């Protein structure tokens, strides 16, 4: 989860999020190079007292400042397109989880295991334990196994919501009457927090999401004991 004075992205908990962070760093380096170059040229223009009375046009410099930005955009576009296709790739999911957005809580269904269903509400501030996070913890966490491909189906029962887990690189809109799908792969154990990122009404900021990632053995025990 995000912590104080953390200006970077959260540590990725899935291969897709790691790829998103790599692309972010790649694009940021290009932007820094462009900013330095343009700033240097502008400073030269501000403080340069030399003029050329006979310079009316120069096709070579126009060609250069058209081709170089085009090449720069290609260096950004190709990794971006690769990442877009990777995010939509679905590869033999082990588990399908269904998330249904309500005003203002989430419902979850594990339809692969005797149709396990539960609602997930935010824990009120006056009921928090010492190890809970205010506005982020819920009474029923999503339990998922790590190192397995997971498919999630997202919809809503009333208004538009958005199921978002930053550490997974997952953000899926929940639209009434529509079923959206995405997938992720959790590569380490832990507890990962998210929130609804679509303004869905008065209590929009009070419908958090919590995923608890555990080993496949513990997950099977949880399923059997539910």
Automatic annotation (TrEMBL):
<keyword id="KW-1278">Translocase</keyword>
<dbReference type="GO" id="GO:0016491">
    <property type="term" value="F:oxidoreductase activity"/>
</dbReference>
<keyword id="KW-0812">Transmembrane</keyword>
<feature type="domain" description="Cytochrome oxidase subunit II transmembrane region profile">
    <location>
        <begin position="1"/>
        <end position="91"/>
    </location>
</feature>
<dbReference type="GO" id="GO:0042773">
    <property type="term" value="P:ATP synthesis coupled electron transport"/>
</dbReference>
<dbReference type="InterPro" id="IPR045187">
    <property type="entry name" value="CcO_II"/>
</dbReference>
<dbReference type="GO" id="GO:0004129">
    <property type="term" value="F:cytochrome-c oxidase activity"/>
</dbReference>
<keyword id="KW-0679">Respiratory chain</keyword>
<keyword id="KW-1133">Transmembrane helix</keyword>
<dbReference type="InterPro" id="IPR008972">
    <property type="entry name" value="Cupredoxin"/>
</dbReference>
<feature type="transmembrane region" description="Helical">
    <location>
        <begin position="20"/>
        <end position="42"/>
    </location>
</feature>
<comment type="function">
    <text>Component of the cytochrome c oxidase, the last enzyme in the mitochondrial electron transport chain which drives oxidative phosphorylation. The respiratory chain contains 3 multisubunit complexes succinate dehydrogenase (complex II, CII), ubiquinol-cytochrome c oxidoreductase (cytochrome b-c1 complex, complex III, CIII) and cytochrome c oxidase (complex IV, CIV), that cooperate to transfer electrons derived from NADH and succinate to molecular oxygen, creating an electrochemical gradient over the inner membrane that drives transmembrane transport and the ATP synthase.</text>
</comment>
<dbReference type="InterPro" id="IPR014222">
    <property type="entry name" value="Cyt_c_oxidase_su2"/>
</dbReference>
<keyword id="KW-0999">Mitochondrion inner membrane</keyword>
<keyword id="KW-0813">Transport</keyword>
<feature type="domain" description="Cytochrome oxidase subunit II copper A binding">
    <location>
        <begin position="92"/>
        <end position="225"/>
    </location>
</feature>
<dbReference type="InterPro" id="IPR002429">
    <property type="entry name" value="CcO_II-like_C"/>
</dbReference>
<comment type="similarity">
    <text>Belongs to the cytochrome c oxidase subunit 2 family.</text>
</comment>
<dbReference type="InterPro" id="IPR011759">
    <property type="entry name" value="Cyt_c_oxidase_su2_TM_dom"/>
</dbReference>
<keyword id="KW-0460">Magnesium</keyword>
<dbReference type="InterPro" id="IPR034210">
    <property type="entry name" value="CcO_II_C"/>
</dbReference>
<keyword id="KW-0472">Membrane</keyword>
<protein>
    <recommendedName>
        <fullName>Cytochrome c oxidase subunit 2</fullName>
    </recommendedName>
</protein>
<dbReference type="GO" id="GO:0005507">
    <property type="term" value="F:copper ion binding"/>
</dbReference>
<keyword id="KW-0249">Electron transport</keyword>
<dbReference type="Pfam" id="PF02790">
    <property type="entry name" value="COX2_TM"/>
</dbReference>
<dbReference type="Pfam" id="PF00116">
    <property type="entry name" value="COX2"/>
</dbReference>
<dbReference type="GO" id="GO:0005743">
    <property type="term" value="C:mitochondrial inner membrane"/>
</dbReference>
<comment type="subunit">
    <text>Component of the cytochrome c oxidase (complex IV, CIV), a multisubunit enzyme composed of a catalytic core of 3 subunits and several supernumerary subunits. The complex exists as a monomer or a dimer and forms supercomplexes (SCs) in the inner mitochondrial membrane with ubiquinol-cytochrome c oxidoreductase (cytochrome b-c1 complex, complex III, CIII).</text>
</comment>
<keyword id="KW-0479">Metal-binding</keyword>
<keyword id="KW-0496">Mitochondrion</keyword>
<keyword id="KW-0186">Copper</keyword>
<feature type="transmembrane region" description="Helical">
    <location>
        <begin position="63"/>
        <end position="87"/>
    </location>
</feature>
<dbReference type="InterPro" id="IPR001505">
    <property type="entry name" value="Copper_CuA"/>
</dbReference>
<dbReference type="InterPro" id="IPR036257">
    <property type="entry name" value="Cyt_c_oxidase_su2_TM_sf"/>
</dbReference>
């Amino acid at each position: 989860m995000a912590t104080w004075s953390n200006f970077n992205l959260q540590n990725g908990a899935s291969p897709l999020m790691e790829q998103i962070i790599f692309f972010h760093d790649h694009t940021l380096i290009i932007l820094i190079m462009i900013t330095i170059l343009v700033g240097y040229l502008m400073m030269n223009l501000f403080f340069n007292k030399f003029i050329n009375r006979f310079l009316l046009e120069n096709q070579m410099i126009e060609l250069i400042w058209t081709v170089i930005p085009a090449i720069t955009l290609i260096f950004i576009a190709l990794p971006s397109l690769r990442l877009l296709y990777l995010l939509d790739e679905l590869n033999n999911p082990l588990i399908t989880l269904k998330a249904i957005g309500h005003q203002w809580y989430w419902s979850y269904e594990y339809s692969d295991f005797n149709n396990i269903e539960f609602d997930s509400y935010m824990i009120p501030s006056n009921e928090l334990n010492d190890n809970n996070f205010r506005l982020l913890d819920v009474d029923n966490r999503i339990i998922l196994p790590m190192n397995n491909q997971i498919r999630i189906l997202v919809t809503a029962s009333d208004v538009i919501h958005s199921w978002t887990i930053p550490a997974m690189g997952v953000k899926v809109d929940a639209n009434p009457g529509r079923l959206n799908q995405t997938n992720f792969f959790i590569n380490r154990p832990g507890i990962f927090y998210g929130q609804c990122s679509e303004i869905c009404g008065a209590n929009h900021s009070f419908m958090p999401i919590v995923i608890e990632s555990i080993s496949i053995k513990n997950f099977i025990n949880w399923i059997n004991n539910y």
